[in-house]
Amino acid sequence: MKSQLLTYVLCLTFFGMLSQSPIIIPGTIESTNVNLTLQNSTFQFFSGEDTSTMGVNGPVLGPTLIVNNGDNMNINITNNLGEDTTIHWHGMHVPAASDGGPHTVIGAGQTWNPQFQVKDKASTYWYHPHLLNQTDEHVSKGVSGFIIVRDTEEAALNLPRTYGVDDFPLAVQTKSFDNSYQIQANVNDDDVLMVNATINGQLDVPAQVVRLRLLNGSSQRTFNFGLTANRTFQLIGTDGGLLNAPVTLTRLPLSPGARAEVLVDFTTLQGQSIHLMSYASELPDANYGATYPGNSPNKPLDGYNPNALNGADFNILQMDVVAQTASPITTIPTTLSNDVPLAEVTADETRPFTFEPLTPGLQQLNGDFSINNTTMDMNVINETVPLNNTEIWTFQNNSAIAHPFHIHDVQFYILDINGNPPPPYLQGRKDTFLVPSGGTARFITKFEDYFDETIPYMYHCHMLKHEDAPAGMMGQFLVVDQTAGLEDLELPKDAILYPNPSKGTYMTVRLQKPSETINAYSIINQLGQIVQNQKIHKNKKNNTLTFPIFQLAQGHYFIKVFTQDRIITKKFTKNH
Length: 576
Description:
Blueprint: H1 4-14, E1 21-22, E2 28-29, E3 33-46, E4 49-56, E5 64-68, E6 72-80, E7 88-90, E8 111-112, E9 115-117, E10 123-128, H2 135-140, E11 145-150, H3 152-155, E12 167-177, E13 183-184, E14 192-195, E15 198-199, E16 201-206, E17 209-216, E18 223-227, E19 233-238, E20 241-249, E21 252-254, E22 259-265, E23 273-279, E24 313-322, E25 349-357, E26 369-371, E27 383-386, E28 390-397, E29 403-407, E30 413-417, E31 432-435, E32 440-446, E33 457-461, H4 464-468, E34 474-480, E35 495-498, E36 506-511, E37 518-525, E38 530-535, E39 544-548, E40 555-563, E41 567-574
Parallel strand pairs: 1-16, 2-5, 3-6, 5-11, 12-17, 16-24, 25-28, 27-34
Antiparallel strand pairs: 3-4, 6-8, 6-9, 7-10, 10-11, 12-13, 12-14, 14-15, 17-22, 18-21, 18-23, 19-20, 19-22, 23-24, 25-26, 28-32, 29-31, 29-33, 30-32, 33-34, 35-36, 36-39, 37-38, 37-40, 40-41
């Protein structure tokens, strides 16, 4: 339990009784050559109290990367944390080897050098760790940062884009601190609210149209954004790009991992203070942040209450309206983009996903959850997607809480939620969205540009406690190029495949060089479909692979064996 002193401080913070603190505006890097250092440090979230943190080029948060569509990025990330981590480019369309998922570990003291071309539309993205079972700890302690992508379409619009002047990145988070003012991970008592690592934050905004780039960087909490006095604002962009036209709103729900760009017109409000709010009292139950986290009051979540934030309306950020800048934006465009969603009739395949509690009943929120009756296993590829496939993914949430689903590699368009078209604020390009408790949803997306037959992309719940659980709510998929030639290549003389043909249950590939190791293999049928894919555990890699064929039907197949330096392909025959 937290000390009485800390609880008192938290209550003062929540009810706005402490002095306001100008929020941190992260510095920027505007270059195709980026150097980031992950480091341990300390930071005073509370005056006079040092908290151990992890940061990027500083004690908390990281620099905002400002890049352009078409840029060829060369990034060096040096890990000085003293432990393994990764860095994932959340929402960005990059090769699997550069995506920064749990397979791409940056060891302590090592430097990772991802290189990729920016193919994304102008929008707000972010980077954060994605290490298996430790994502919440590393993110909560401060390793994250914004990415702003610009493109020619966005540049042609009369929009605020002067960083830190009329265009502000706002990372909204709730965290939990113990009685020593240290950050706790994988808990449910996140009662300290901050914006850009600042508690009780304040921001000066000019009396003109201002752009707010909202990121829900919380581990679990959904916010219901709005302005004081129910003032309207304009939503201009979702996770992956601009909308076709602004959407006028007074409320904007945003789940963990999701982003939104909004315009607020402060032109006539100089001298006034406007608060960015979360109207969490309006969140339906079965959302983390609502009065009840489950779909009924008798399904508790340990540590969730008492918490003054849950089910309440609260201030997030005080915005004090000051004088206009020299060249103010005072109008809002009526049209923004010409984005055409994928048509449902173009889908090549439909994939179902079902969320289930592993502990059914009244205590299910205190247990783990599965996707399609499986939990995260680094050695299992859950889905294999052909390159250039357009697919519909369907979701059935049979648990008592809503789950924010996030997919790597692609942006998608939501087709429907509970059988109804998505509300206007969810009709743009998305990579994260909330699947309601007891409900259904569908989205459509296309897997293009990148394929990799050994390194997978991830899909998962972006409630980091669910993702990190021992039985993690996460899966992985490969994007494969089925059009690549599968010629009947002879194995080189320094490798053999036996017995071939075979009536047995196993076959063996042996490489003659003891120093050469087999990292993974795929078995492909004559239609070009991957029927087996297995990554070899790093502790078991050697120059000999024995693989099962008993489950294969009679016929001809190809095996692709992946070593650190080459791909070996051979045709084999399974007989009965």
